[in-house]
Amino acid sequence: MMKASKKMPEKQPELLWVVVKVESGIPVMVEAYWDKQSAEMREQCWRENMRPEYDETGVFEVHIGQAESND
Question: Which of 29, 7, 10, 2 minimizes the C-alpha distance to 58?
């Protein structure tokens, strides 16, 4: 006789904001923040001292947690 499988309640993934700094096409710095405002402030700080024709920076949303299953 087969037992019914119990599904664990799905945990909501946590959210991080990642800021990436690229100099001359090479990623040189990555920092993660719990809130979007802090990440955007860091990005703005980096933009003040970068060479816009060679460098770039960006803020990305990253979900941490269980991967979605297809069952």
Answer: 29
